[in-house]
Protein 1
Amino acid sequence: MLARAGAGAAFAVGGGSVVGAPAASARAAVPDGDLAYARLLVALELLSLDFYSQALRAGRFPATLELRRARAAEKQHYDAVAAVLTDAGQVPATAQDIDFSYPRGSFGSQRAIARLGVRLETLSLGAYLGAVRALETPEFRNHAARAAASEAQHLSVFSGAVGGRRIGPPLPPALPIDRVSDALDAYAS
């Protein structure tokens, strides 16, 4: 997934008014590992935005207000992570850069949407928790922790819709960057 996003689609973390860091020219360079996470998280947020848009278009999930709020949150997450790349002089991927595909029937019923939502939000939560563990840039790490809290809220909506627990494990697992990238490959074509 990281390779597919391309070198020109790199993420820029921190900086600007999005996460409260000083202008790019006034701060130290973002470490390469943080930029790799930024690229991955941009792709993940683009997948989330695509999923929520398709779920809303399908009209089969009754909690449309919650879907709209989650989509708006994913857009804010994308903007914050994309700003990290932009501040580092890289061009973040956009929706036009990646074609997403889903298993057949993913949007055919409320239950199908909720099951896919559980998978994607579990991935997002794990990705952000993994980023918190690995990131070196304090502002980016702060954003990742806050985004993880948001992703956990999204996950609870879908978990409840499939009859699962709305309150998940007390210490959800953090996923390493390679596992997140591999999981994203299943949805990108």
Protein 2
Amino acid sequence: MKIAILGDIHGNSIALDRVLEDIRSSGGVDEYWFMGDYAAIGHDPVGVMERISVLPNARIIRGNTDRYICSGELPGPLLAEAMKDPAKARQHIQFARSFSWTAGAVSGAGWLPWFKKLDLDMRFTLPNGSKVLAVHASPGTDDGNGVDLNTTDEELASLVSGADADLLFVGHTHVPIDRMAGNVRVINPCSVSNPYPPDLRASYGILEANEDGYQYTPKRVDYDREAVIQAVREVAHPAAEYVIRFMMGENKKPWMK
């Protein structure tokens, strides 16, 4: 069997179209596994939902931003902190405007019940008996620090403890990961929409499995980021500056130079 692993699309239908085209041009897949964060912080949340909802044999779990859309929660500084710090206040306001914009688009198009039904994780057994667990951030949660390049071996071992899996797929941090934590292989296919530099191409993965084992192949495909910049401006997205910085490779992790 052949499976496409995608995550962190973030309302970017332009990037998603290129990934889906790349999958089709390579012979297609038997299943699609989606790792969460579909609509928020992008110009076309409804378009993304329309595309993934019609894909055959799709397994879909939720990400933290998918939960925020339904619950009204916000990432970033708490309101009490924001009231004491002007910079955090501006960030809090931007988050609130951005997620309200997305929630309005999703709700108006009738997708809110779909989001509310998404599961936290997904389990699957490959033909060779390997047990797979897929979750957005880390086992048991769709939020938090997740698995990053600076996650220590000790931290990773703690995260996968009790996961009862041979292969763990995660998303959330927008960086490619392929590491071992004891006997557990941990893979992050990176992000369809917002990978961190130096490689800004849309990222996903292909998992091929049979009775003899499995093979994972990371994939990258370029797309028109200038078209995304134009699109977020045209829809007057509240987080346009943040999205544009991703398109330009200007958003970085603290440990990136």
Protein 3
Amino acid sequence: MKTVAILQSNYIPWKGYFDLLAAVDEFVIYDEVQYTKNDWRNRNKIKTCNGTQWLSIPIRQERLRKKISETRVSDSRWAAKHWKALANNYAKAPYFRRYAEVIEEAYLRAGRLELLSEINLLFIRTVCSLLAIETSITSSSDYELVGDRTMRLADICQQASAHLYLSGPAAREYLDETVFAAKGIRVAWMDYSGYPAYDQLFPPFDHSVSILDLLFCTGPAAKEYMKAA
């Protein structure tokens, strides 16, 4: 039975994103939809001694209603700034040195890219490699997209020969499961509750920060604090 998940790309997302990714056979990055400002597409949070800090990739304001896949970076210096922020705030984390070379190299490569989708995919693949997640990652551009929001998702699943669609819980507000059922596809919902805490450098504890926090703080034990263990 093939399981598929479909989600927009995020910038070095939190552990729940990677749990959803690890739980399926194929993960479709859904970037042929409108880019939304002040969202997770181009930013994420890290812990610092002064509280939670946003790391945001600067985006060109070219036009309204542009797709995520069309969204471009406005200033290539963002990559060096983000890496410096990570190095400054996580230098004393137990496993920072273990992953520093790989993550810094990813930032060097990302700084040469213009498209936000390509940057996000680079980091998603890098983290998957560090966590030994082997799920196939594809793009919504590989599929024919027709109809409304639910129909598009169901059609992607059908084209991917999926038997089960695993969705994030936020989609409960709009997803019509009968559209999937008509195509012989069952819908299941990801549960993000019950995550254990781990030793973060700067309390209070925050589950929602980038997964880099988990990697730098727990190292090879990271999956023990995830559902993908």
